[in-house]
Amino acid sequence: MRATAWSTALSAAMLVALAASAPSAAEAPRPRTMQEVLDASKPSDWRPLDPAHTLYMDLAAGRVVIELAPAFAPLHAANIETLARAHYWDGLAILRVQDDFVAQWGDPEAEHADKRRPLGEARATLPPEFTRTAAGLPFTRLPDGDVYAPEVGFSDGFPAARDPRSGEAWLAHCYSMVGAGRDNDVQSGPGTELYAVIGQAPRQLDRNIAVVGRVVQGMELLAALPRGGGALGFYEQPRQRVPILRVRLAADVPAPQRTNLEVLRTDTATFAALVESRRNRRDDWYKVPAGRIGLCNVPIPVRAAPSR
Amino acid sequence: MRATAWSTALSAAMLVALAASAPSAAEAPRPRTMQEVLDASKPSDWRPLDPAHTLYMDLAAGRVVIELAPAFAPLHAANIETLARAHYWDGLAILRVQDDFVAQWGDPEAEHADKRRPLGEARATLPPEFTRTAAGLPFTRLPDGDVYAPEVGFSDGFPAARDPRSGEAWLAHCYSMVGAGRDNDVQSGPGTELYAVIGQAPRQLDRNIAVVGRVVQGMELLAALPRGGGALGFYEQPRQRVPILRVRLAADVPAPQRTNLEVLRTDTATFAALVESRRNRRDDWYKVPAGRIGLCNVPIPVRAAPSR
After folding, report:
1. B219 contacts in A (CB within 8 Å)?
2. Which of A188, A224, A226, B89 gets the most CB atoms within 10 Å of its CB?
3. What single string gives the DSSP state of each residue in B235-276?
4. Phi, psi (5° rounding) for residue B93?
5. Chain B residues lying within 8 Å of A186, measured CB to CB
């Protein structure tokens, strides 16, 4: 847990051993660290974010980049995109930060019909998109099981779960996942109020709410916010709220102001090697490799897109 | 995910139904919310923190209260108590805050033999206390399995795991757990440098490091700190570090300045009911109860000790 603890330094003896074992690598791949896996990745292992489905939430402290998940919540993604195009969130705020749970943003006056911001062309209610059919969905399954779901893995860069019996799939509430807050009515969460997970994965929310995407950059801007002192972590005073400067679709932002990112494809051999590198840590610090990994412990690497 | 989402309101019809079912409660206990379980708890369901094994870390923003776990790491707990009695941490700092991982504190000059703070009567190295024998350990097992360990549950208020084959038990790296940072040498973590988990449980650390306790109050003071910009979340500039005013054993603090807390006993019927209330949420918001719960999703309630 010191600086040296996480180095990937290899001793000379180990390097010799690795070189010697290279010819039989196909049968018994030598263990690699995550950094070695990423360093050996090919350009085709990465995919750019789609500007049509990427949100920028600009705060005074910096930009939060959210990749939307229209494959899981198409109506919500479309409604959120409509809201972003109408500049719905500009001047609204982060209202709630509950420790070990969520940061949540939206209209402070949402409960007051006479004061709340109009939704314009966006819809005020939406059918629940809490699960979808698993058929046709890419799914890279993890090998080590899960407490909450029969199967877990990754679907096009998002942590997901599925149930072979019901034929359903859903996004999992891991750290940095974004959902559409709702009231008790399942149709009451049209995406106007969004939250990001900032603590231990609250997987009990799975299948109860529309998960709409993932924060791929800027999580620390949300996770390090002061916790709210009110019930459920709501800020008690309006001045405590964190103003949102603007939320934009990346496609609507001029190219020079875009944050161009790539996500590691989760259906590649490189990602499989990354998962293995995290199931069994191979640096000098770890003495007992776990040999297993939980869904929400697998990093989904993001990097700046190479300039062209 | 709004204020109403987490209410425990019961409809009149439900109250009637509950009253009607009361006589057969022993056979089929009616579902209760966590708040109802806690409201019905008895004084004997709670135990006070032991002042001899409780640390106060006072920051400018407030107090972090840590319950040590001598049952799992007796040498580390004793060494930490020796360090606290010597006021070792006074004027040292939080050095590292890595998003979704840990906040870590200690001596910024620990690597410089000529500048670092002397340890006094405390030991500079300790044998690893990464696991212990499971024999003789109280253990309230959870029913829903775990990705990382054969069995998980709670031992006297701490999340723990055990392996019937090896006969070993260990504390689990859930949110708010505190460990003793070390270098690659397994004896290099004597408790001078401590960390608390501030994100998704890094269970791969289990059995690789001495877990020494749990933050029972003040987690938000650590989890909301700015993340460090350096490698591994270390602060790059000394001025960014968060000063520690003092660390004291509760037993060494005059009674009026103590933070008197009680922890719900985890070997009680009340705790079992609490676990069940979290496996299957019963408020109006949840539509699909998970029916299961992960080790690090179970809250371990703490409350102010009633005045006597």
Report:
1. 99-100
2. B89
3. -SSGGGSEEEEEEEEGGGS-GGG---EEEE-TTSHHHHHHHH
4. -155, 160
5. 287
Query: Nearest residue of A to residue B282 by CA position?
Result: A204
How do strand A151-155 and strand A140-141 relate by DSSP bridges? Answer: antiparallel
Which of B59, B174, B175, B204 should we substitute to test contact with A (largest number of A Cβ atoms within 10 Å)? B204
Contacts of A99 in chain B (CB under 8 A): 219-220, 223-224
Q: Do B290 and A6 touch (CB under 8 A)?
A: no
Q: What is the pLDDT of residues A148-176, one digit of tens each?
A: 999 999 999 999 999 999 999 999 999 99
Q: Is A16 exposed, middle or buried (0-12, 13-18, 19+ CB in 10 A)?
A: exposed
> Which residue ranges form the domains of chain A, and what is each CATH number?
50-127+172-259 (2.40.100.10)
3-state SS, residue A214: strand
Token pair 């940072």: residue: B181
Query: How far away is chain A from the Cα of B23, in angstroms, using its nearest Cα?
Result: 31
Q: What is the dihedral of CA A46, A51, A53, A59, to 10 degrees?
A: 100
| Cβ distance of B175 and A100 shorter than 8 Å | yes
Cβ atoms of A95 and A234 closer than 8 Å: yes
pLDDT tens digits, one per residue of A204-230: 999 999 999 999 999 999 999 999 999
Element containing residue A20 per DSSP (H, E): helix A12-21
Confidence of residue A6 (pLDDT cuts 50, 70, 90): very low
Phi/psi of residue A39, nearest 5 degrees: -60, -30
Q: Which residues pair with A163 in a beta bridge?
A: A168
User: Cβ(B31)–Cβ(B282) under 8 Å?
Assistant: yes
A297 neighbourhood in chain B, CB within 8 Å: 200-204
Q: Would residue B120 be called left, alpha or beta, if left means φ above 0 and alpha means ψ between -120 and 50 degrees?
A: left
Give me the residue from B4, B100, B208 closest to A286, CB to CB.
Answer: B208
Residue B27 above 70 pLDDT? no
Closest CA to A200 of B233, B101, B216, B286: B101
Provide the phi-psi class of B136: left if phi over 0, else alpha when psi is between -120 and 50, else beta: left
- Give the per-residue pLDDT at B178: 99
Position A1 confidence tier, pLDDT thresholds 50, 70, 90? low
**Quick check: helix, strand or coil at residue A98?**
coil
Chain A residues within 8 A of B232 when measuring between CB atoms: 3, 6
What pLDDT was estimated at residue B20?
Answer: 36
With a cut of 50, say whether residue B12 has pLDDT above it: no
* CB-based contacts of B252-258 (< 8 A; 24+ apart in sequence): B252/B84, B252/B85, B253/B51, B253/B56, B258/B51
Q: How far is CA B51 from CA B103, B221, B291, in A?
A: 24, 21, 37
For residue B6, is pLDDT > 60?
no
Look at B223 and A223 and tell me if their CB atoms are within 8 Å.
Answer: yes
pTM for this one?
Answer: 0.92
Are A290 and B204 inside 8 Å of each other by CB?
yes
**How far, CA to CA in Å, does B173 sit from each of B67, B160, B298?**
15, 9, 13
Helix residue spans in B70-228 (DSSP H): 74-85, 219-223
Contacts of A130 in chain B (CB under 8 A): 287-288
Q: How many beta-carbon pairs under 8 angstroms link A with B?
A: 170
